[in-house]
Design a protein that fits this description.
By secondary structure, the chain is α+β, with helices and mostly antiparallel strands. It contains 8 helices and 21 strands. The two termini are 38 Å apart.
Length: 362
């Protein structure tokens, strides 16, 4: 089910100051996709999620879930959270410690007119879906963190919601379990074909899970795109920098070459993708990710996008080296394969593939 948001505004007041937690947000969350709200702490992700759920009353704007208007201050409409047909999974799981797995999952059905027989069937189906068959009688406290998170997911799904919302659901798990649970969640949600709205400040989680990512800053949505668009061809410097490690080089566009442009920078001329069509003579910023800085073969010392530099630092992190290459005043971060025969202080040639570096408005 699609969610449409128009002109959503939410202000808070603290110590005499106004905080624009949501600043006139227009957004369409498409049906049956995993849609992630990503952004730094305090950008308004949780406030937006809570407005959709109905735990927060916005100051202005409207929210539609499918065709139903669930909230509009101008039209004096406010549908209570329990009547919005949504499921929610919180960071803290919020499962009841004094109940067993069955009772936790059955909880949302107890207040409705569902018969005991139907409840048993629905709970069984939800537990089977999250691969917890046979755990019905286990006390909730005797589950691992990952299992508790699956109980929380089963409980959110048991009433067959139209939309499921997640507020940083994996942040209490350790790194390895987080990775496994992320994979599981992706496959559960893809199978369900349900609209999922997911809040996180973890860029890897957003890239790994989402069909679409909306990057937020200071109460506004800056850019929306699929993970590859956001990572490889973002339109904004803030997004490019936030979604991954990025080398940003200042300069000016000096010539157009079809989809590409020649960029005059502090390290020399670089041919790069110019997806935004930045005009000749304009200041711009070149973005190249560390993994796309290639060590050029020794015999290549000049040509398009080839530069000479010095390996300033090199740190072995197992699957790769993380290095810093100095070219004049510029320091570029790079990732180098762990078998490379290279050391700190070496003079090296590096190359940028023109299709893997892109220009952003300055
Ligand atoms: P995080 O990732 O840290 O959870 P977030 O992006 O979810 O952050 P929100 O919790 O939505 O951010 O908060 C948005 C802004 O509103 C922040 O500046 C926050 O300090 C402020 N804020 C949130 N709730 C309140 C409140 N009850 N009173 C005052 N200010 C608040």
């Amino acid at each position: 089910m699609e969610i449409r948001i128009h002109g959503l505004t939410r202000n808070y007041y603290s110590e005499g100051k106004q905080i624009k937690a949501l600043d006139n947000i227009d957004l369409t969350i498409p049906a049956n996709k995993i849609f992630t709200l990503l952004g730094p702490s305090g950008c308004g992700k949780t406030t937006l999620l809570r407005c959709i759920v109905g735990l927060e009353v916005p100051d202005g704007g409207e929210i539609y879930i499918g065709d139903e208007l669930v909230c509009s201050s101008a039209k004096k409409v406010f549908v209570a959270p329990e009547s919005r047909g949504l499921g929610m999974v919180f960071q803290t799981y919020a499962i009841w410690p004094h109940m067993n797995v069955f009772d936790n999952v059955a909880y949302p059905l107890q207040t409705s007119k569902t018969t005991q027989d139907e409840i048993r069937k629905k709970v069984g189906k939800a537990l089977s879906f999250v691969q917890l068959d046979g755990f019905e009688n286990r006390p909730a406290t005797k589950l691992s963190g990952g299992q508790q998170q699956r109980v929380a997911l089963a409980r959110a799904l048991v009433a067959e919601p139209k939309v499921i919302l997640f507020d940083e659901p994996l942040s209490n798990l350790d790194a390895k379990l987080r990775e496994e649970t992320r994979k599981e969640l992706r496959s559960f949600l893809s199978e369900l074909k349900i609209t999922a709205v997911y809040v996180t400040h973890d860029r890897i989680e957003a890239l790994a899970l989402s069909d679409l990512i909306a990057v937020m800053r200071a109460g506004k949505i800056i850019e929306i795109g699929d993970p590859k668009k956001i990572y490889f061809h973002s339109d904004h410097k803030f997004v490019a920098d936030f979604i991954g490690r990025a080398n940003l080089i200042k300069g000016k566009v000096s010539e157009q070459q079809g989809d590409h442009a020649v960029f005059s920078s502090e390290i020399g001329s670089i041919v790069a993708l110019n997806g935004q069509g930045i005009a000749t003579g304009q200041d711009a910023m070149l973005c190249i990710r560390p993994e796309f800085i290639q060590l050029a073969p020794e015999q290549v010392t000049h040509g398009h996008n080839v530069f000479k530099g010095k390996m300033e630092t090199l740190i072995f992190i197992g699957e790769a080296y993380e290095g810093e290459i100095r070219i004049g005043e510029t320091l570029l971060t790079t990732t180098i394969e762990p078998t490379a025969n290279i050391g700190e202080g070496d003079t090296i040639s590096i190359a940028f593939d023109p299709d893997h570096c892109f220009l952003l408005s300055a």
